[in-house]
């Protein structure tokens, strides 16, 4: 409980159970808490007492609608009344492992019950409930379905009409999806109502009696998608038109096309090589009439562009003409294929998209018969209600979304969840000491490196300190406001989560899309051994972080807040198998969540094995490489495979070369970062999977930047674009994905500085654009895009659109000069100190040396040149020893006077040019 003193800022005083006020009215409700003898995982349930029917002069029911089925992790609670005043409920210890919370309402209207643990709200808190007045009438409603629920599960409540007489009861549920309502007359003056929400969001429940809303109606229930798994597929069906003229394959890469409908809706469309050798366009017709196709190269129309294309009625996709047959859209069975058929032959051209959401991620298979008919099979693993969204040409087919009841055996998957409040980190100022922490156990700090790139493009080395065993911090001092890029590499490879976004000054945006997570615990693990990973919420602002682990056994989850906008999470499971780790921030999945993790059996003898002579640096593609594995007396089978960046797998060749020593040869076939899995008796050996660079991999996602109108506020039906700058980032795989309320027509074409992505949204709402370079997020990805305007398609579940491009290496062009544009350096050469004999006197045939200290001179490039009587000297060797400290060695072969020039950028350092006698 909170005492009155605590509200005035003094030390809180914990009340004893005996000090709580006594319960004094027979129709108070009880909420019981069972602690199950476990810390923090406490189950709450709610019992409604039987209320005697009173005389007609008195009210026969006072609803104080409470909730059931939520987690309570506290013994502290308070009630905020409609007037704004705070009241305290009564908490009784039942001395049997449960406690009861009772509250006597003093006002009518919406109340909020706040339940806290360690000063933080528990999941769902504050809970809202409505209190009726004694004189307001007889019809009341109460129950959890008026306040909260979960998609795909019936939400229930009760309406009491005792003594109210005839009047006619009416109910309606409105929300993001249709909700089937069922009700049952209990023959005792109450009616049990159940509705089935099929999409998350806020639902409005109206209860009317005699054409008037009852007290508290309409109610607003928050429906979450908690624990729901989603899978989707898309099947394209496009109209193809051949364009006149001859276009080479090289030209095709730099061309982009868009089609404008008679209504003015303009969308990108795809160019493709037709079997005749001519170029054709592929698009989805949405309207009848003459369309205009524009084909441009670097913003200018090609010959004969724009072209005219006429679309007739039978070509326009019509979802109403799609025929769906099969009982699998009404009921299904677990662990078997449930099949239904789709016939689009009379429905015109359009893309077909299917999503299935339910207690498990149902595996979907699509058999396209190439005649406009398809068979869809889905295989769920858990029983329960599933929601099937089926759209054609961006509109629901008749009957969609379908609610399917799946029966059968489940897989007994266990789920554990914890929830923690994350506070917003104070604003970082220019010139202050900044810190980014991460945990990487079992490595040496010698192989770690970090750089920070400012918004102006200046990159500096950053210092990495080991705070405690396995916990590291990157330290830097920013010189300007804005979003900085922090790259952290281990053995020249970005660690999971890197490159990081680090905002100096106020945050421009907040939300789940800015949360990052990474670490070995999100990739693999071992039963009975803690698996760890990092979560960085600094850029996302304040909010609630929910962590769930689901799999063959229950997880024990531990959470440690590092108080700097990051935390580390550890979990232990007792059974091997496939687990899903869900990370949600403010009820929304963070990027790439849920993570699929395989937990291997206990290591056993595998811990004895060790790897030797593993290739350092990078190896070449299409050439064999090898390393050694020592068994050290372990008994069992060794196997290994190499996984390429494209996820292609190849077996390694293992050969016994000594009594207890094996050679493992692998043959990488593509450039990029490969993972080598080495297992003993089916279990990863220590350090596996090993990561290795193949080829001269200069691909750096930290050097890729996105900008343009397409990342800001956009409008439905309007084509918009953005530029992805890949200059100096190397050649790699660019993948752009857009998640939102509807699919977007999207294309990607090459431009001078990188690639231009264009798309047209059809529904208003929030879209999230993920941009990955060689499978790693660029800084700021995913980007949150707000779209306004009219709805040009039907809503129904999240839709995903993507485009993938193999890029070519690009360099910046500044003015008329070709090549890399240098960053804007901020430096002062006058603050450089130099010392050493080599600045005054030198000896023939020997290494002459001096040192340069540029620690206080900002960042720039050191230039050293030596010119003698007969031209330049033989060699000059500059070594950077860290923190802008340099050692310079040079060798001369002739006697005479030499001139030594030392410049920091464009400016001579103090004393330069130096005169040196040999």
From TrEMBL:
GO cellular component: cytoskeleton
Domain of life according to the entry: Eukaryota
Keyword Repeat: yes
Presence of the UniProt keyword Cytoplasm in the record: yes
The protein's name in its UniProt record: Filamin
Similarity field: Belongs to the filamin family.
Coiled coil residues, start to end: none
GO molecular function: actin filament binding
Renumbered ranges of Filamin repeats: 76-131, 131-223, 221-311, 314-406, 404-504, 507-599, 601-694, 696-787, 824-918
Stored Pfam families: Filamin
Keywords attached to this entry: Actin-binding, Cytoplasm, Cytoskeleton, Repeat
Annotated source species: Anopheles farauti
Record-linked InterPro entries: Filamin, Filamin/ABP280_repeat-like, Filamin/ABP280_rpt, Ig-like_fold, Ig_E-set
């Amino acid at each position: 409980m909170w005492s009155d003193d605590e509200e005035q800022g003094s030390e809180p005083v914990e009340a004893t159970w005996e000090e709580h006020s006594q319960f004094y009215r027979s129709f108070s409700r009880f909420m019981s808490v069972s602690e199950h003898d476990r810390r923090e995982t406490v189950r709450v349930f709610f019992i409604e007492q039987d209320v005697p029917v009173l005389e007609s002069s008195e009210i026969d029911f006072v609803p104080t609608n409470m909730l059931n089925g939520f987690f309570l992790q506290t013994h502290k609670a308070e009630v905020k009344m409609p007037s704004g005043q705070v009241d305290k409920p009564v908490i009784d210890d039942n001395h049997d492992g449960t406690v009861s919370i009772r509250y006597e309402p003093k006002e009518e209207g919406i109340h909020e019950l706040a339940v806290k643990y360690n000063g933080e709200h528990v999941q769902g808190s504050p809970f809202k409930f409505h209190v009726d007045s004694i004189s307001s009438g007889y019809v009341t409603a109460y129950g959890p379905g008026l306040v909260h629920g979960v998609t795909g599960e019936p939400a229930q409540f009760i309406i009491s009409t005792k003594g109210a007489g005839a009047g006619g009861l009416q109910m309606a549920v409105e929300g993001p999806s249709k909700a089937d309502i069922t009700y049952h007359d209990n023959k005792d003056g109450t009616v049990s109502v159940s509705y089935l929400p099929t999409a998350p969001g806020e639902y409005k429940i109206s209860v009317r009696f005699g054409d008037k809303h009852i007290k508290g109606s309409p109610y607003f229930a928050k429906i979450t998608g908690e624990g729901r798994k989603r899978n989707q597929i898309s099947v394209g069906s496009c109209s193809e038109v051949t364009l006149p003229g001859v276009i080479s394959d090289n030209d095709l890469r730099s061309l982009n096309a868009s089609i404008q409908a008679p209504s003015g809706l303009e969308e990108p469309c795809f160019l493709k090589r037709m079997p005749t050798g001519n170029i054709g366009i592929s698009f989805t017709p949405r309207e009848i009439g003459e369309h205009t196709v524009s084909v441009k190269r670097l913003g200018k129309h090609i010959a004969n562009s724009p072209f005219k294309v006429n679309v007739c009625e039978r070509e326009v996709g019509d979802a109403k003409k799609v025929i769906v047959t099969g009982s699998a859209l009404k009921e299904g069975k677990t662990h078997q294929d449930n099949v239904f058929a789709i016939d689009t032959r009379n429905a015109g051209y359009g893309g077909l998209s299917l999503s299935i959401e339910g207690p498990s991620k149902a595996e979907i298979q699509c058999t396209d018969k190439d005649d406009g008919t398809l068979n869809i099979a889905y295989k769920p693993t858990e029983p329960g209600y599933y929601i099937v969204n089926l759209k054609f040409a961006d509109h629901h087919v008749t009957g969609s979304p379908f609610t399917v009841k799946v029966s059968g055996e489940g897989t007994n998957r266990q789920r554990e969840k914890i929830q923690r409040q994350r506070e917003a980190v104070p604003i970082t100022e220019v010139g202050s000491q900044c810190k980014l922490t991460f945990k990487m156990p079992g490595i040496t700090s010698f192989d770690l490196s970090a750089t920070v790139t400012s918004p102006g493009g200046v990159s500096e080395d950053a210092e990495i300190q080991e705070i405690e065993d396995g916990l590291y911090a990157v330290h830097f001092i920013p010189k300007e406001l804005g979003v900085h890029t922090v790259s952290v590499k281990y053995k020249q490879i970005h660690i999971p989560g890197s490159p990081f976004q680090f905002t100096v000054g106020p945050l421009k945006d907040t939300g789940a899309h800015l949360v990052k997570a990474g670490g070995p615990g999100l990739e693999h693990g071992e039963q009975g051994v803690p698996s760890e990973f990092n979560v960085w919420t600094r850029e996302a602002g304040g909010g609630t972080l929910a962590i769930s682990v689901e799999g063959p056994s229950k997880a024990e989850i531990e959470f440690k807040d590092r108080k700097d906008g990051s935390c580390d999470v550890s979990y232990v499971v007792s059974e091997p198998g496939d687990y899903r780790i869900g990370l949600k921030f403010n009820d929304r999945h963070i990027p790439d969540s849920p993570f699929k993790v395989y937990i291997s059996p206990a290591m056993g003898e595998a811990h004895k094995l060790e790897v030797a002579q593993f290739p350092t640096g990078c190896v070449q593609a299409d050439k064999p490489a090898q390393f050694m594995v020592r068994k050290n007396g372990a008994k069992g089978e060794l196997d290994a495979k190499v996984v390429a960046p494209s996820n292609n797998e190849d077996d390694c060749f293992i050969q016994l070369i000594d009594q207890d020593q094996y050679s493992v040869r692998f043959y990488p076939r593509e450039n990029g970062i490969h993972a080598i899995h080495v297992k003993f008796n089916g279990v990863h050996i220590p350090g596996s999977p090993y990561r290795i660079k193949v080829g001269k991999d200069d691909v750096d996602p930290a050097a890729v930047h996105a900008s343009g109108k397409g990342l800001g506020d956009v409008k439905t039906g309007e084509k918009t674009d953005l530029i992805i700058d890949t200059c100096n980032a190397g050649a790699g795989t660019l993948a752009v994905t857009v998640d939102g309320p509807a699919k977007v027509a999207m294309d990607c074409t090459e431009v001078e500085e990188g690639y231009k992505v264009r798309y047209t949204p059809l529904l208003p709402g929030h879209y999230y654009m993920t941009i990955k370079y060689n499978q790693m997020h660029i800084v700021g990805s995913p980007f949150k895009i707000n779209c306004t305007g009219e709805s040009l398609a039907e809503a129904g579940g999240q839709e995903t659109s993507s485009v993938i491009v193999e890029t070519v290496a690009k360099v910046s062009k500044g003015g008329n000069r070709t090549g890399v544009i240098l960053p804007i350096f901020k430096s002062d050469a006058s603050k450089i100190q130099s010392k050493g004999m080599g600045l005054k006197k030198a000896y023939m045939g020997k290494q002459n040396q001096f040192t340069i200290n540029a620690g206080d001179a900002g960042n720039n490039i050191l230039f050293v040149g030596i010119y003698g009587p007969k031209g330049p000297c033989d060699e000059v060797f500059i070594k950077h020893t860290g923190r802008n400290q340099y050692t310079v060695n040079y060798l001369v072969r002739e006697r005479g006077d030499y001139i030594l020039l030392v410049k920091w950028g464009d400016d001579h350092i103090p004393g330069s040019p130096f005169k040196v006698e040999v």
